[in-house]
Write a structure and sequence with these properties.
The protein has one domain: 3-Layer(aba) Sandwich (Mannitol-specific EII, Chain A). Helices cover 46% and strands 19% of the residues. It contains 6 helices and 6 strands; from the N terminus they run H-E-H-H-E-E-E-E-E-H-H-H. Helix 2 packs antiparallel against helix 3. The N and C termini lie close together (9 Å).
Length: 154
Amino acid sequence: MKLSKNIRKSAISLEIGSKAKDQVVEELVSLLCDAYKLKDSDEILKAINNRESKQSTGIGMGLAVPHAKTPVVKKLYVAFGLSRDGVDFDSIDGEKAHIFFILVSPRDVSGPHIKALAGISRLIKHEEFRTALLNCKDEKEFFALAEAAEKKYL
């Protein structure tokens, strides 16, 4: 799954303002729902929080990928957020999360969801890409970075 083709400009926030995990999740759900005009933001938030309660999606290396499946959407939706200060997201490595991708997809369709998680994981393991994201200045630069990384690593 290519981020550059599956994320809207309006689904990118380079200044996550929240400082606590639960607030970041709410901010990301709001970003996602606003960008794609999704209704049922309460149900999406509930699904994301339910997934987080099972195991944190703070996977380390400064990355968190809150995600869930829910019957209230018909396809995969992705948004991106950046926190310059970082947020304690109960990450596996104990480090703060700075880079956030939030995904929500239909409950009965697994392929796109798994491909998106795998693609993000493949890209983010490259320090060059992580550093570039952390220094990203605007949405145009985000798309340029994503496209270059996809060509190089996917």
